[in-house]
Structure formats: C-alpha cells, structure tokens
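Sample A.
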Amino acid sequence: MARQELDEANEAVKELQCLLIKSLLPKDDADERDCILEVRAGTGGEEASLFAMDLFKMYERYSLKKGWKFEVVDIMESDLKGCKEASGAISGPGAYGILKFESGIHRVQRVPVTEKSGRVHTSAVSVAILPQADEVL
C-alpha cells in the first residue's frame, strides 16, 4: 500500500514539475493574436501540390473544429485540383499560440493518385504561420 502511494506521489511530483517549468517560460505577446496561414508546394511536382491542398484543408477543418473563423485569402490551384500556394486568415482566441509550431517543412511519402505503377513518391510542402499584424495608424 505504501509503494502504491509512493508511486502516485512521484507521478504528482512529475506533473507539478512540468507545470512549474511551463510557468517559468516567458509568454509570447503574440500568442493571443489571430494568424495568417501560408502553404506552398515544394519538391515533388504535382503530388506536392496535392499534398499542399490536403494540408490546407486539414488546417481549415482544424480551425473550424476549434471554433475559430477561417477565411481563404488566396489559392493558386494546379492542374489536378491541388494548389501551388494557398493562404488563409485564422481568427480566434489563441490561434497563433497554438499553431505557431506548425511552421516549417512538412514531408509525405505515399503512392500518389498520379502514379500508375505504384511507386512511393516523396513530396514536401512549406507551411508558414504568421501572427496577424497590428493595424498601423
């Protein structure tokens, strides 16, 4: 019984240590802002543009699921219903703070719908999450 209480206490200590470390990190002033999402197809040709559209729609659905407002700003479509570039505005409490770590290069390896012989293709897409700028007066 004492061993069980000790294990539970150790788990509680670990959780409290994590909370303490998070509370000591400086808060980013931009975390509560709205944000701009930019998705660009990279290497991989037409498959990369299909992957870019998949990611853009995924972020749109995620935003709506979180109760945020998602507005498509621009989409430059490719031949097979993919997109070479897409951007959207996401408005909601803490949107930038939650999405800011999504920025970077995203890679996929899959057999694309454009492939006839079943080979695996690698494609890359760049994602940029930018905080909404303050209005300039």
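Sample B, a different protein:
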Amino acid sequence: MFAQCIWKCASSVLLIALLSCVLSPPAHASKSSEDIRCKCICPPYRNISGHIYNKNVSQKDCNCLHVVEPMPVPGNDVEAYCLLCECKYEERSTTTIKVIIIIYLSVVGALLLYMAFLVLVDPLIRKPDAYTQPLHNEEENEDAHSLAAAPTPSGARANTVLERVEGAQQRWKRQVQEQRKTVFDRHKMLS
C-alpha cells in the first residue's frame, strides 16, 4: 500500500513537470538568445594570436564581418583575416534539454524513493531467520536445533514451492551444523 502511494505520487509529479515544460508558452516568439549563436574560430594571423568569437546573430549574418568585434587587424587586412576565420551557425533547443533533465531527475528520484522504501519498510515485512542471527553460546545453538528438528504435524503439508524450498534449506542447515559440531567439537571426520 505504501509502495503504491509512493508510485502514484512520483508518477503524478513527473506528469506535472513534463506538462508544464511542454505546454508552457515560450517567452519570446523567436528563439531565445541562448538557443542560437554564430561561432567564428580565427587562427593566428601575423603578430595576432588566434581567438574564438561568439555572437548571437541570425544565420544570414553569421560571418566574420558581423561576429568578430573589435576587429584585431587594420582596415586593409580585414578581408585576408576574415578568409582565415571559420564561422559556424549553431542552434540548440533549451526546452528539449530541460525536459530531458527533468525526466532524468524524476527517474533518479523514483529510484531513491524505492531505495528508501526498501531500507525502511522491507525489514519490517520480512520475517527474521533464526539461522542468520548469530548465536551467542552453545546452549542457544542446541535449543535452536531441537526446535528445528521437531516434526511437523501429519496434517500439515508443504503446499507451496516456497515452503518446500524453505524446508529443504532448513534440513541442509541442520546437516551443516551437525557436521560442524562433529568436526570441531569431537574432532572427527564424517565418512
């Protein structure tokens, strides 16, 4: 029940986040200044070191004359300098990036909620296994063996696969304990 509540809450938060990103109207009718740019890479020229220039301009204005400001060369060398520069128009969608990040964070959040559920609730659901708890002395060990060796009533039958597997596991654990007792306490080897 608790897991279903967590799952419903996580799915509704994810749905609201996605809808708000997708359905929200854009801030401007055109692309925002962060979504487009012209990038000019100019190599070294004479005594001028190479440099990278970025500017938010339209695609038709993406050339050295509009992007490289201030021009590092005098007027008569501008054309030669601009021929060396390589200008590229770049476009990206920040809305798509935001949606991908929200989906990623939602998945990570759902996994963290599931981990918290497993850490907090799972130990309460599972029944404790007598063989996984450390036994402090030999008397407790003997008491546990006598209780485990008690026969089950003839009317009770292992109906499920899980009960049969648990029964086989208990028998195997008893055999291992007997072998340990024989080897370590009596210093005998079983044949």
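Observation for Sample B: Helices lie at 2-23, 64-67, 78-84, 94-120, 122-125, 138-149, 161-185.
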